[in-house]
């Protein structure tokens, strides 16, 4: 998903001062709001008029919502909706009453802050500084208070009021020091009840009292890293749970960037480096049990039911799209409208802590408004450090949640809409996190790929953060009159409201965050260029006249079959077929694609592995047909478009039962694929090796194997007859051992003497593209060539796993078992040796004895694969039951229909396999080899 947003350059007021000049806003440029920001932070003079003070405070109220937005982006409107003590309702709809009440409310906020200043005096400051400076061996004589002023406008941070105390410290040695600090107080106005209910101040005190000092202490072990880019400030004093005294960012020479301009690449990398360091230390605090994480169990957003609010904000967004963009944006409007009924539930599920994954303490408010940068020069062009101040939403969860907030709210617009640079930042953070975890001694395994999967899983959260935060940002730049949008929401409201930040056309046009393939003129030009690249002039396409798109949504992807109709240079008509696979925009299909990493594999294979295989073929002088489809266009995490083969090629249905000639072709071509893969593995040219270490997530795969084995044991016992009872018991007894044995099989790839190839994965005949002939006059009974297209289960391991898939992925098990040895010894192995030599393999050779040994060691995997594949073939569903799959995925409980296993075709296919398993003692209680023959073969292999 690519979230793209833009901040308005300027706004013009004509007539209604709160009305935007939309023509200027669509200029799509970044601009300076320095004058507005200056106004928001400049009021300190007691001589300001009542009108000036209320005007100023009305602007500042708009910023409250951002502070407790946390993971879901709670805004000021929601806060005031939650607090029913405000006199809001139908009466507020009358303009005069509304304005009068609004001003009185603002004055009520201001008075407690003014009164609170009186409790900060020189005696209090001297006590704080005496305790703090004594730690450094300094003795304080007295403290003189020079100035007490607001750190920012009252209400800028909803959960606290912040002031700066500037003082002069006199030491007993006769020396003096001018210093300042920040005093953070819990508000005493109408906000107090909500703050206490949500535990905002209590959470922040816990961070400054327990978590941050523990991190600081642990970091002392790493002196080279102790002072570098720590993103937290030191607390001098605190009073639970009403006051916090911390370092002053200004005194430390850390400065805030302009919120409306956003952060450039350099500032963003400094921020993400600091965040990675913070997250790594948070994980250490948990792993070593240094800090109790219970106070940080839930985010602020997880404590409030916001079903109604999110429905309204998404409905309003859809409404604003329809109002300003017309018919072509109707799908976008419809997406947000439909999403409004489920968004809160989806976000709630997405933000639940998964204890099986990597978690750490989060900032909860990692956003440009909470960032202060230090620079290496006076020009403020070379950031070298970051500090953040607010930790009122700190909680223990996935680090992806902090990154989603940052990436979708804080970078400058030019960076936010640049996919390549966005990806660079995400990878930069992930790599830094892994570096810090290793440096600080984190014991568990966590990889860059693990984080990227989690980041993609939480993209909907990023989208919602962008709507909430950036919509609020646009609104803040409006006239005071629109501020009352946060106050008019009440228990008796009609259910609609207008947040003008969402109706900014420039914001809407570039905001829609789910990238999908667009069959437009730009796309067609790219396709035409790719098609023409290797053709003579007369056969090149000169124009595309018409495009047909047939969409299907019953697979894990949204599948589009695209047919282009046009003309060639020589005047001939031209048809060209493409297939687009798009990651589902939402729902379980999207979750499945992201959490299993299958689309990531597909993308990497098509964009990086297959081009390298083409290079190998070219270098070896091999100009034969490739074993794979050519991709035309791909976008990581979003879609892949590939060219479908022409005449003579087709995808068979499940009714295909391959015969002996088909198997010979398959084994020979698989040898070529494995040889190229072995060369790439040897040369370390397979990207994302950790992603390809498993066929599928091991835990999930083994749960499925266990489930199907239990089912088969029951079917064999109850329906196959008495002669099979012993096997049924063996199957049942094997169930607890499945996970360990399968892990042993796949861990063999890490052994020093292992011969590894790049396995295709699931060799399933209906998924292949088969060629039955090259002309109308010549159509063969058996396919003469095939192409792979799906690489979601590709993995690096022994070639045995692929060979088992070819052998056991058909109902014709009798034929396969009859010819299995011949296919391996006389077809596959000689071809593999020949192709390894052809493509320049220089690693450890694979002997035939070693290959046969590998096949025997992995036979359990072969049988389990056969059970699942044959059952699926018999069931032959037209479409997947996604609701049932989702339940299995979330609960781990399989509810597979057993009818297929009772089918005669299943029994006929599986009995020869089970006879073979009995003869080989695959489910017996022997060692992994399974039989004496295995042991003898093992010795033979070792001698080779």
UniProtKB/TrEMBL annotation:
Residues 244-439, 650-838 form the CHK kinase-like domain. It holds the Pfam family EcKL. Residues 922-944 are annotated as: Disordered. Residues 935-944 have a biased composition (Basic and acidic residues). InterPro entries: CHK_kinase-like, EcKL, Kinase-like_dom_sf. PANTHER family: CHK KINASE-LIKE DOMAIN-CONTAINING PROTEIN-RELATED, PROTEIN KINASE-LIKE DOMAIN-CONTAINING. This is CHK kinase-like domain-containing protein.
